[in-house]
Amino acid sequence: MEDSGSASDNQRPWQSYHTVYTNAKAGMEGVDKEKVQRVVYEMSKGSKYFENEERKEAFIRQKIEHMRARAAKLSAADLSHYQKVADKRILELEATRELSRIWLHVDMDAFYAAVETLSNPSLKGKPMAVGSMSMLSTANYEARKFGVRAAMPGFIARKLCPDLIFVPTDFKKYTYYSGLTREVFRNYDPNFMAASLDEAYLDITKVCKERGVTGGEIAEELRSRVHEETGLTCSAGVAPNRLLAKVCSDINKPNGQFVLPNDRMAVMTFIASLPIRKIGGIGKVTENILKGVLGISTCEEMLQKGSFLCALFSRSSADFFLSVGLGLGGTDTPVARFRKSISSERTFSATEDAASLYQKLADIAEMLSTDM
DNA sequence: GCGGATCAC
DNA sequence: TATGGTGATCCGC
């Protein structure tokens, strides 16, 4: 972990503001990352948003320092104790390993952008993003070559790619096409789990067995049928659990697939060199903390540093980290899921006018009431 | 139990 | 000019 207050940052200040848009995303392999970071920094510096990001980054650095100090204080006896704790947990987790089910994760390629291109074919081959000057939902692959990506504000994207075409979001359209894909999914697993409009998990164990085909063959067929029914392409991952299937669907994106066999050695080899940031649930903060405190970058290192993980983190966090190191993930078919909360929020420009703040509160409460 | 932080899409 | 909205979970207090 670099020290963000170092002299080198004063020479290249944009490198201290480096936590946004840095994780690898499909279609962004050839991008000049330093140029993108410089443009993002130039467009961001001085803004309230930027100040808040810096405040959050400073807080994380402080948290890392605190945890490093705790780690350094651990005695040999402590470490020996926590090594035993970790070894025991690893054995217990290993005992839960399930290799009898085949999971498929399907992920539509640049979904919103692809749908918009279907309804307006003149967009084909041109850099395009769905969203507004404030925020982009997604960008097509032509735009990604310029460093434009989902969650980036449009005004920065236009700086990176002056010819970028902006298309406003149209959820009705995406919901309709999502429904078409789900009709295809249903044929392979009637209990499939929708993760969003453009992602789903399918337990294809049964259909593989009944038809005497491999998971890879099902994935090829499903992707063809999705394309026939919608004109859209998707990518798929096949693996013994959902966590791994999700990682696999990203490997040959777009319009590709990757199969990880139901074999313990294959899983352990696959997971060994895998960057932890690829794992769902490990975001930029957790990545920074694990790297900064324990030097952990790959899943394999989760097991090697098991004693520290058990010493420094809660039981549930340590269990999650160790299970990642083992390549374990969900294999069950959860029953119906219930919504636990409902909320409404709106971003607005800063004001100290009490009357206007109360009015906004009333408006948002009204929207929430309508939703409920 | 609550509010803030983190994460995913 | 300008950096989203919804829902879930975890942690510290």
Describe this structure in words.
- It is built from 17 helices and 8 strands.
- The protein has 372 residues and is of the alpha/beta class.
- The chain has helices at 7-11, 33-44, 48-73, 76-95, 111-119, 141-144, 154-160, 171-186, 205-211, 215-230, 242-249, 264-272, 284-294, 299-304, 306-312, 315-326, 354-371; strands at 103-108, 128-131, 136-139, 165-167, 193-196, 199-203, 234-239, 257-259.
- The protein has a 5-stranded mixed β-sheet.
- β7, α11 and β8 (257-259) form a beta-alpha-beta unit.
- The longest helix is centred in the N-terminal third of the chain and has 26 residues, at 48-73.
- The protein binds a DNA duplex (9 and 13 nucleotides) through residues 20, 43-44, 47-50, 53, 56, 59, 131-135, 137, 150-156, 195-199, 280-286, 314, 316-317, 339-347, 349.
User: Which radius of gyration do the C-alpha atoms yield?
Assistant: 23 Å
Major sheet, described briefly?
5 strands, mixed
> What would you call the structural class?
alpha/beta
Q: Give the strand order, joined by hyphens, for the main sheet.
A: 5-6-1-7-8
Distance between the termini: 45 Å
Low-confidence stretches: 1-10
How many E-type strands?
8
Q: Share of helix among residues?
A: 40-55%
Main location: nucleus
Keywords: DNA damage, DNA repair, Metal-binding, Nucleus, Transferase, Zinc, Zinc-finger
Protein name: DNA polymerase kappa
Family: Belongs to the DNA polymerase type-Y family.
